[in-house]
Amino acid sequence: MEHFDVLIIGAGLSGIGAARQLQEKSPKKTFAILEAREVIGGTWDLFRYPGIRSDSDMYTMGYDSKPWLEAKAIADGPSILAYVKEAAVERGLDERIRFGNRMKRAHWSSVDRFWTVESHKANGEIVEFSCNVLFVCSGYYNYEHGYIAKFEGIEDFSGQVVHPQKWPQDLDVSGKRVVIIGSGATAMTLVPALAKTAAKVTMLQRSPTYIVSLPAEDPIARVLNKLLPEKLAYRLIRWKNVQLQRFLYHQSRVRPEKVKQKLLSLVRKQLGDDFDVEKHFTPSYNPWDQRLCLVPDSDLFKALRTDKAAVVTDEIDKVVPNGIHLSSGETLDADIIVTATGLELEVLGGAQFQVDGEPVHFPDTYSYKGMMFSGVPNLIYTLGYINASWTLRSELVAEYVCRLVNHMDEHQVTQCTPRLRASDEGMASYQMIKDFSPGYMERGMHLFPKQGDKDPWRNTQNYTLDKQTIRTAPISDGVLEFTNAPTLPVANEVTTPESSSVKSAA
User: Fold this and answer.
1) pLDDT over 80 at 306, yes or no
2) What is the pLDDT of residue 486?
């Protein structure tokens, strides 16, 4: 059984970023990455549907330590995957990944002060690892399958039914009639991509979503990249984009009607006066109650201005052999139905956790700074922003892990546990991500820890505040309880409960 100071779960964007930071800021610490699949990339390798791209600009979604150098700020999936792989290989991190290891169980021992992680391989083999700190960067959705909504009659459909998370690479839509069920980023990405070859692509939505179009290439970034050194230009562009994101989100919260009208006016400008924007692009909620969909270079609008693509806002009555019968009485003919119905949320990769033999029920815990669990030692997880790039927060969390393990080394302690104080009794509690209501969140947020109404139990979704509470606030804050093992392990060697010797691996 290999032992590490830090064990990272997941070799996607967050996991590779975490490993890069550990190399830089905690160079004496041993670490490895467990990856359930056989490849680097996480989301950007799993999803292979046509047109897949980022829904954030790559200047904020990229790593602070690795400037994004391609021209397109709104990048396609293969480019992002290549970026993540390069970020790993250039640091030798690919050699630290234990591929094909899916974490199934993790047990914390307060006697030994380390986690034992049980991993399952595809061939059924069970492998164990141990670590002082377990850092989970596996995202928040189920990699095995997406959310499959139930539609009456779907089994009678004579064509093919496809979910974007399981897109067949040999699927040919040439000359086919395609109906995409959904109104989120995936559906809006698929429409222009499939419309290039399909006979007709229809996006069938129950309710509209707010959309904003931006240039795929950032014109200010293009100028700065020509005039300034690479790293300086990247930092300035990143700063600019963070401020723009913050401004738009803040305006959406304090002036929702004004932002709503502005967004709708931009859509009308794209589609013209004859298009029913009120019906198809005017949501019943305020901007940023659900995530804004980003459309690069107006590609969705360009498709809708042709006879190759359409949007229909209606309820599904049932699926029939030749398509979808709607509540309005209309039938959408289809050869292929794409169920872009969203994700299925999952906490910490769906693994089971125990502390000293007692199962951890995460909904009973409070989230400490949005990344640890009350009463659970030495466990950190990454949950990115819903109103900005995921990486902005994942990098803050990785920085914190480095600060934490360095602090524990300096003070010769081996266990840190967030503890609710007497003054925290009776504080209000909310779901982990509040004031955000897309379907996948409403279906799955009950599985996650709660957040409180005061620090450090809040999950603010505010990058500026998080930089203060995560990056610069003292590690010892009176909430994290630091304790030590009865006897410290001797020189990179620990003894397991089974009395087997575990050596620290590089």
Assistant:
1) yes
2) 53
Helices then strands, counting H and E runs in the chain, come out as 13, 27
What distance in Å separates the CA atoms of residue 309 and residue 250, rounded to the nearest whole number?
34
Q: Where in the chain is the domain with CATH 3.50.50.60?
A: 2-144+344-503, 154-219+269-339
pTM: 0.91
Beta bridge partners of 318: 325
Distance CA 296, CA 216 (A): 5
- Residues linked to residue 353 through DSSP beta bridges, in sequence order: 106
Which of the listed CATH numbers 3.40.640.10, 3.40.50.300, 3.50.50.60, 3.40.50.920 matches domain 154-219+269-339?
3.50.50.60
CATH 3.50.50.60 fits 2-144+344-503, yes or no: yes
Give the number of other CB atoms < 10 A from CB of residue 215: 14
CA dist 134 and 5 (Å) reads 9
Question: How would residue 490 be classed by pLDDT, with cut points 50, 70 and 90?
Answer: very low
For residue 498, what is the DSSP state? T
Q: Is the pLDDT of residue 505 over 80?
A: no
Check if the beta carbon of residue 380 is closer than 8 Å to that of residue 372.
Answer: yes
Where residue 489 falls among pLDDT bands split at 50, 70, 90?
very low
What pLDDT score does 110 carry?
92
Burial state string for 383-418 with b = 16 or more CB within 10 A and e = fewer than 16: bbbbbbbbbbbbbbbbbbbbbbbebbeeeebbbbbb
